[in-house]
Structures are given as structure tokens and as C-alpha cells.
Amino acid sequence: MTLIILIVCSYILGNVLTGSIIGSFYYKKEIRIEGSGNPGARNAGRVFGKKAFVATFIGDAMKGALVVLGAKWLGFGATIELFALFAVMLGHVFPLLLKFRGGMGVSTFIGGMLLFDPMLFTFFAGLFLIFYTVLKSFTLAGLSAVVMIPILVLLFSYGIPVFIAASLLSVLLLFTHRDDLKQKLMPEKS
User: Fold this and answer.
1) 9/91 Cα distance (integer angstroms)
2) Considering only CA atoms, which of 98, 105, 84 is closest in space to residue 9?
3) Apex CA 147: angle with CA 31 and CA 134, to 5°?
4) How do residues 89-147 score in pLDDT, each as one tens digit?
5) CA nearest 112: which of 53, 155, 62?
6) pLDDT of residue 156
7) How many CB atoms lie within 10 A of CB 123?
8) CA angle 93, 94, 99 (to 5 degrees)
9) Closest Cα to residue 162, out of 113, 111, 105?
């Protein structure tokens, strides 16, 4: 029963979109109809400025960190920690309260992975920097590093259930960035 409550609460917490809250309360605008229409940190920064970017990033990252911390505190293992992170990201990407139009889940992913295993996260960040040096694209470098997360999990001696949970996280992030990937990998001919 505790597990079900954790997963459901994680999904509900994911529905709280920091960018929408900041836009509504501080700027009297709905971020989901401004800029790219995405309520994430990048669009918040584009539409409202650097402070909104930082606040949105921290708020969304805290959601991931909180559910992983909650799973740890309740004594669940690594697999459930990542499933809780998946649930909060699912809530962020497909918020029931906002007609399933949410963000892309990157900030939430970062906050959760940082708390899940700081050393693994350090390797993830290192891979991102290596990929960025080669690819010269923030999006492609980030998604390439995301694809490596399940492999890192295995290298860090986590078992197959954790590998599966990490794979779900990677697939979700690839799905939310599918349009960016198409644009970067198959640019339209003019």
C-alpha cells in the first residue's frame, strides 16, 4: 500500500509545474501559450528572463529530488526510487490537472538522478560535457548522455530491475524530445 501511495503522490507532485506557477503569479501570463508553449525552465528563461529560468529549474528539479528522497526515507531500494522518479516525470510531462500538456521532464530528471546516486550523476554530467564537445549541440549532447544512463546503472553494479527503470526514464526523455531530435537529425531542406 505504501508503494502505491508513493507512486500516486509522485505523479500528483509532477502535475505541479513550476513554470506555470511562476508565470501566473509573478508575470500574470500562462507560459503554456508563451514562447514555445513549454512550461519548462528553458522556455521560462526565454519568456520571463534568467531569474524565471533558475527558479523553474530549481522547482522542477526539487520534484525529482523529493520523490527519490521519499523513496529512500521509506526504505525502498534503487528500483523503486527510479520508478518514483519515473512517476513524477510522467506527472510533469502528462499532467492530468493541465490536460496532459506539461514539460519535457529534464529538470525533474536531473534533480532525481542527483539524489539517486551523486557519483553516477557526476559520470552522467561528464558524458554530457564530452558529447557536447563533439556534437556542439546542447540537445543532442544531453540526449546522448541520457541514453547512456541505463549503461551507467549497470557499470555501477545495479541489477537488471534498476536497468529497466533507468531505461524507462531514458525512453521517456527521448519521447518528450522527439521533435527536437527530428529537427536536429533530419533538418528540413529549404
Assistant:
1) 10
2) 84
3) 90
4) 999 999 997 788 888 999 999 999 999 999 999 999 999 999 999 998 888 899 999 99
5) 62
6) 95
7) 16
8) 130
9) 113
